[in-house]
Amino acid sequence: MNHFLFAPPTTPRKAPSTLRRLLVRCPATSKLVATGETIEEPLWEGTAKRTGKFTCPHCAKVHPWVKKDVILAR
Ligand SMILES: [Zn+2]
Question: Bridge partners of 23?
Answer without folding.
Answer: 34, 71
